User: Fold this.
Amino acid sequence: MLTILYDGIAYGMLLFVLACGLAVTLGLMNFINLAHGAFAMAGGYCTVILVNRFGVPFAFGLPIAFLVTALLGGIFERTLYVHVYARSHLDQVLFTIGLVFMAVAAVDYTMGSSQQFVQIPEALQGQFEVAGIGMGKYRLLIIVICGLLTVALQLILAKTRFGSRLRAAVDDQRVARGLGINVGAVFGVTFAFGSGLAGLGGALGAEILGLDPTFPLKYMIYFLIVVTVGGTSSITGPFFASILLGIGDVAGKYYVPKLGAFVIYAIMIVVLIWRPQGLFARGTAR
Amino acid sequence: MSARADEVALYLKRRARWSPLEIAFWIFAFATIWLFPGKYLILKDTAILALFALSLDLILGYAGIISLGQAAFFGLAGYFSGLVAKYGFINEPVIALICSGVLAAALGFVTSFLVLRGSDLTRLMVTLGVSLMLGELANRYSNITGGADGLQGVEIAPIFGRFRFDLFGHNGYVYCLIVLFICFVIARRIIYSPFGLSLRSIKGNNLRAAAIGIPVKWRLVSIYTASAGFAGIAGALLTQTTAFCSLDVFSLERSADLLLVLIIGGTGYLYGGLIGAVIYKFLQDWLANLTPQYWQFWIGLVLVTIVLIGRDRMAGWIGAVRAFFHRLGARLAPRLPALGGAGSKGP
Assistant:
């Protein structure tokens, strides 16, 4: 029981790191980015190549994955996404699904369609027992890293000048622009950072979620659930939503394995009917 | 006042007239039965896809609802028609087809109330969620549906007891084409009615539409239900002509491909789905021959390019072509000028 809770929290934390970039882009630019998972996949494959082929230590592989995907996200944002912000939601959905298709086929072509595994250092394998609960070491690492990241993100958002600019832009883009905040630049940096986080999440999660070319399609739905259920106006909303989703998914698969993800979809639909703007949304006039 | 009403009625009637280009389109469509006898399989798939895309066009092009969940209706009706044929509840394919359509429409009616809330993203998620849930259910009750192996052992009785589904797909294709045509005529009737005009105004601005007395919610519920029915018929056609049904009828890819089909053809003028289906199927066939494993890449590239060029601009080109044909048609058969512009493009 507690092991399920523990695994669920680790899973949820991972989902949060993967999805929080999406939450910010959606809240800030009202942009539906279905290709978010592609960046996560890029991070995962980056780590696989670095660690398995070039023997880079796992601890260095993670930050490099973050940097590479952030760079990638920044480039894509400046060259392609910029043209699509002002378009309708339908165009955005089409554009990003197109990107996902391309990413899936491109990875399939370069890396093959089989599942990839990151070689994790031996110190992180196995599990230990605390008060009768078996805890995987790797999952503990995930919880620690993701927990630290969450705290850091919250601090950045709440305490720094950049954070207050970002929050202002999310709350009301027009007024923020009127106050002299360069919303475009704020968004570019945030997009790159969010993609980097997705990449880091993909690298960390390769072990748990499995990494193959269909990754962006498979987990796109999960990211979207996190974002729609959690709401996009804060970072705590998606956080709780991902923890809920993580625990719900692990518990659902454990107790009613035959129903699979049915439980998750059902919960999502019920929540969305009950509160169409997300569970933790503040009443913004949008 | 009544003179004005007459004028409007006349305008509507004139607007709904079949243009020479449309008639030529359908003559050509039926001519394919004799023109391409070796291509029945891909033609049949195209006809089914066209009907499916037509159903999405009804809600996307005319009512402005973005949906990633048309596969729910497609799959439900597909499994239904497969099961009734397998266990011999309804042997006549045409009746089974109509029943499947009605069942899908019923699901559409029920889920329409979920879909009509919230923003675009919420709609996207709810429609997608419904189809994924049905997929999970079909997987769960694999003793009925066959699960991941698909529904096997379906035997479809001959149509009207006379026309057997043959190996070459001749009868299957003719059957699909006739069903497509009938559904198209119904959809066309819906769209060119005052009801269709009210949908257009809802898409343009639903606040104003409500202000001039259009019951926005019920209009959307009805068109969503109708669209679900058409999607269901398409799904049932697929099962009946292939005598097989698998879990991928519910998949996300199916709904996403459908959006692509409609975008290639253009939304909001009924033929978009049909033309899009033809282009998509033959593009897919060609690309799959070229690069068997990676055709998805090129499909994605097409999508990205279309969006970057801009659908409005492409609609402009299509509009120019249409205008050309219109002038041509006008020269061949002189007609009265229309009341509010001849084109029926979206805004």
In short: Chain A has eleven helices and two strands. Chain A has a mean pLDDT of 83.
